[in-house]
Design brief:
This protein is α+β, with helices and mostly antiparallel strands. 48% of the residues lie in helices and 15% in strands.
Length: 154
């Protein structure tokens, strides 16, 4: 599932380019390919999955370029166990607030959303926790960690 429509894909590239320029980095063709490959995914993916999705993405430069894209807030790294790291476009860029189901066995990550009223209650609860702790929260993530159905069955 494509996370961005054709018109918003252009806006996505404009925003990523601006973020890179702000730290004196260039929006190279390789970085653009990574952003496109991530935008085409419906869940967080590993570097090998990105390479498989777009043969033009080189493994050797993917690690370096994803680190730069993460540094400027265009990409988020999600850890799903000791050996599993996956990447997705930053929520702020795609406007898609979601949470994750993380399998500790295979590392698979699935996105999920909750109904708006539940999300509001989560935000209210977290705002209370932050206020009581004198903490200035800017966002939240909710990750459910466990075992996926394939690993339970296998």
């Amino acid at each position: 599932m494509d996370q961005t429509s054709p018109g918003s894909r252009s806006a996505l590239h404009d925003e990523v380019g601006a973020r890179l320029r702000a730290v004196e980095q260039i929006y190279t063709a390789g970085r653009r390919r990574l952003v496109d490959a991530l935008a085409d995914q419906d869940r967080p993916v590993t570097i090998p999955q990105l390479v498989e999705a777009d043969a033009g993405v080189a493994v050797s430069s993917a690690y370096r370029n994803l680190a730069v894209l993460e540094q400027v807030g265009a990409v988020e790294r999600i850890h799903s166990g000791a050996e599993h790291v996956r990447f997705e476009l930053a929520e702020a860029l795609v406007g898609d607030h979601h949470h994750h189901l993380i399998c500790e066995s295979c590392g698979r990550i699935e996105d999920f959303t909750v109904p708006a009223d539940v999300e509001r209650r989560i935000e209210q609860t977290l705002a209370t926790v932050a206020r009581d702790a004198r903490f200035a929260a800017t966002a939240h993530r909710l990750d459910l960690i466990g075992t996926c159905v394939a690993c339970v069955a296998g």
